[in-house]
Each structure stands twice: as C-alpha cells, then as structure tokens.
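thread: overnight batch results

M.L. [08:02]
morning all. the overnight job finished for the chain we discussed friday. pasting input first so we're all looking at the same thing
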Amino acid sequence: MNNLVIVGAGGFGKEITVLIDDINREKPTWSLLGFIDNWHPVGTVVQGYPVIGNVEDLNAYQEEVWAILAFGDNKKLYDHYIQIKNPKIHFANLIHPTVHIDPTVKLGHGNILSYCTFISCNVVIGDGNIFNIRTVVGHDAIIGSFNMFNPGVVISGAVNMGNHNFWGLNSSIVQCREVGNGNRVGAHSLLVKSIRDDGFYFGNPASI
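M.L. [08:03]
and the structure it wrote out:
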C-alpha cells in the first residue's frame, strides 16, 4: 500500500475518497493518510479522514508520499501544484476500476480518471487533468495538462488540446480540431471549429 494525501478538503476532495475506496476494493493500492488543506484547521474530519496539515506542512514532510490534487477549478488545481516544492512528494494517477484506457495511451502524472471514463487508442495525456464521470476521449487525441473535464464530456478523435481548459457538463468537440489554452466551454455546448486561447464558448454550435 502506498501512502497518499488528498490536497483539497472540499466537495471534490470528498469524492476522491470514494474513488480511492473503489480502487482499494478492486486491488489494495492506497493508504489514505488524510487531507492537506489551507483553510480547514488540523484535526478537522472530512469524509472520515483528518486534515493533517497545509501545503507548507506538506513541503516540510520528510517521508516519501503520494499526493492527488482535488479541486473542481483547474486554476486552483494548478496554483496548488506549483506551491508544492518537496521532491519527496509524488503525484499519483488515480484510475477507477471501471475506466477503459487503451494500452497505447501515454499518461503523465497527477491525473484523475473517474467512473466509466473511456480513453481510446494512441492518446497522449499530460499532467494534472481531471476526467470526471463518463468522459470520453477519442483515438489519437493529444491532451495537455491541467484540463478539467466535467461529467459526460466527449473529446472526439484527433483533437489536439493545450492546457488549463475547462469543459462544462456534457460539452463536446468534433474530431480533428485544435483547442488552445485557458478556454471555458459551457455545459451542453458543441464545438465544431478550432479555437485559440482564453475564450468562453457556449451553445450548439458553440460561439464565443
């Protein structure tokens, strides 16, 4: 069993405890030590696990430990990632037992693949992405880092995506398109064209 801490004791952090329980029922993998959180006092119990310190405490930790970032906002996710400087902290990939991930997939670190996510063949995925319930990524897609995919998102085949993009509930994009960095795609929106950086897109078809 590998020692693990969850960074972030909010609602998404609670959901990650359920994900870890599901993983451990299938194959004992993670020993959850508790939460790292900058807002809850040490000793606060969240979802049955204690808050054991803040990011400063984690940076002073003297033992090897795995960490997972649990924030529903990818800006907070990245902000916490760059605050963690301790070389003894390693970022885990959490993959629910119901996930299909093809053996050809190249996966970075610190990713969360939640219930019934489907990752097709020849996909490249960076670091710190969150694939929430029933996310689909098609063949030959390239996904950067710190992207947030809410439940039901569909990324079609051969999409090339950058970093820090936020995809709302049940949003999607057609195949062979490019997505830049820092975009937000609204719930139930469909992108049919490539987009650049820092836009907010909504509708079907989605427009800026």
